[in-house]
Amino acid sequence: MFDLVYPLDPAPVVAVKSLPKSAEVLPIVEESGMVVSRTTRKACHNGSHLLHPVVHLHIINRYGCIYLQRRSLQKDICPGYWDTAVGGHVSYGEQLEEALYREAYEELSLSEFNPLLLGTYVFENELERELVAVYATIKAEVPEPKNDEVIEGKFWTIEEIESAIGTDVLTPNFEQEYKRIKNLLLALL
């Protein structure tokens, strides 16, 4: 578990000459959650491997099914793939749960839920390096995708998810995370 610890004065800007007013600004952190600098989302996703925090929310129902969202075809990474119910970056100045509620509302119009922190880990691929805070909640109703970031969403059975692993249907990030937290999700039931 980590909390984001921001410096008293704004953290220095790295990897870009200046922060454009329209840019999404993200904190750059140590694995402990200490904010050491800030930069643009674009700078975090260009292969720089600047460690930045993200939040994920898994939604499970009482029948043991897990809600997944299908990513927009306009996404830069894994367009059209099925992924974690809610996932997003923590903006500079936000705390983890603030970002979690903001992202849940932006993506699924979800505002009434009780998140349970399952754990944290570092995810890295060729483009980025993320400090992921993984949450779960139990919901009976089916969330409704709200914006152009999500094509659709539905509850999947464990068998459906496990059959889809390795078939280029699910994001690689989701597949890794699912293997890590499957037992924790099922323990919530």
Order of secondary-structure elements: EEHEEEEHEEEHH
Output mean pLDDT: 93
Task: Identify the CATH class.
Answer: Alpha Beta
Give me the Rg, rounded: 16 Å
Give the CATH superfamily: Nucleoside Triphosphate Pyrophosphohydrolase
State the assembly state of the protein chains: single chain
* Alpha plus pi helix count: 4
> How many beta-strand elements?
9
Q: Which range best describes the helical content: under 10%, 10-25%, 25-40%, 40-55%, 55-70% or over 70%?
A: 10-25%
Main sheet overview: 7 strands, mixed
Distance between the termini: 22 Å
Contiguous uncertain segments of 5+ residues: none
Number of domains: 1
Global shape? globular
**CATH topology label:** Nucleoside Triphosphate Pyrophosphohydrolase
| Proportion in β-strands | 25-35%
Structural class given helices, strands, pairing? alpha+beta
Query: What is the CATH architecture annotation?
Result: Alpha-Beta Complex
Structure explained in plain terms:
With 189 residues, this protein is of the alpha+beta class. It has a single domain (25-187), classed as Nucleoside Triphosphate Pyrophosphohydrolase. The chain has four helices and nine strands; from the N terminus they run ββαββββαβββαα. The strands form two sheets. Strands 3, 4, 5, 6, 7, 8 and 9 form a seven-stranded mixed β-sheet that branches. The longest helix is centred in the C-terminal third of the chain and has 16 residues, at 172-187. It is globular. The two termini are 22 Å apart. The model has no long low-confidence stretch (mean pLDDT 93).
